[in-house]
Amino acid sequence: MADKILILTGDAAETLEVFYPYHRLQEAGYEVHIGAPEKRRLQFVVHDFVDGFDTYTEKLGHTWEADIAFADVNPEDYVAIVVPGGRAPEYIRNNEDAKRIVRHFFERNEPVAALCHGPLLLAAAGVLQGRTSSAYPELAVDVETAGGIFENGGGVVDGNLVTGRAWPDNGTWMKAFLDVLEGAKVTA
Q1: 44-47 long-range contacts, Cβ below 8 Å, gap at least 24?
Q2: DSSP for 86-151?
Q3: What is the pLDDT of residues 112-153, one digit of tens each?
Q4: Of 23, 33, 47, 116, which one is the catalytic site residue?
Q5: What angle do CA 82, 84, 88 make, to 5 degrees?
Q6: Which parts of the sequence belong to the DJ-1/PfpI domain (predicted)?
Q7: 188 within a domain of the structure (yes/no)
Q8: How much is the pLDDT for 2?
Q9: What's the confidence (pLDDT) of residue 131?
Q10: What CATH number is associated with residue 169?
């Protein structure tokens, strides 16, 4: 039986930031579950960067079934978590069970990957104090307000934590996360 990794997400998550780690971790031999506020079909979005815009644009993306509701998650069943970006972290950061799950992994120094807006959930869970984290660059203030140290990079590693800026960092972000999983002797 393969070790399990949980992706914490919800509606309006960035499609590429959910699907890339989902499939890459499956390819590496892990069983990957999607956790969300409710066990139901989620609507993801596509963020893109357009010349002349001050920020990204958003269009509807793919839909995907959540495997488990946050309230039903026993963190002991998983060896690591992934928090993709998009707009989902803006509201799942208010979910007490999502914060409970995040705290579990930080208290045990177990592998955590977060991308783009994902560190908003980490900040809300109170786990960024003194930690180095990347994020979507406009969230540097959120990382620093939570007591973290912002680093503008694609595969930023601080112990058990691996972060990146956005989906263009998927390759370096997941490479670094797979290295952390290997270093923690978490194998598929």
Answers
A1: 44/11, 44/12, 44/13, 44/14, 44/15, 44/18, 44/86, 45/12, 45/13, 45/14, 45/15, 45/86, 45/87, 46/14, 46/15, 46/16, 47/14, 47/86, 47/166, 47/167
A2: BSHHHHHTT-HHHHHHHHHHHHTT--EEEETTTHHHHHHTT--TT-EE---GGGHHHHHHTT-EE-
A3: 999 999 999 999 999 999 999 999 999 999 999 999 999 999
A4: 116
A5: 125
A6: 4-178
A7: no
A8: 81
A9: 98
A10: 3.40.50.880
Contact of 12 with 41, CB cutoff 8 Å:
no
In-domain check, residue 9: yes
Instruction: Report if residue 138 sits inside a domain.
Output: yes
Cα(161)–Cα(28) distance, rounded to whole angstroms?
A: 19
**This model's pTM is above 0.90:** yes
Q: How many domains does the chain have?
A: 1
What does the chain come to in residues?
Answer: 188
Whether 116 sits among the annotated catalytic residues: the reply is: yes
117 among known catalytic residues: yes
Q: Contact 129/148 with Cβ under 8 angstroms?
A: yes
CB contact at 8 A, 167 and 185: no
In which residue ranges of the chain is pLDDT below 50? none
Asked whether 128 and 112 are in contact (CB, 8 A), the reply is no
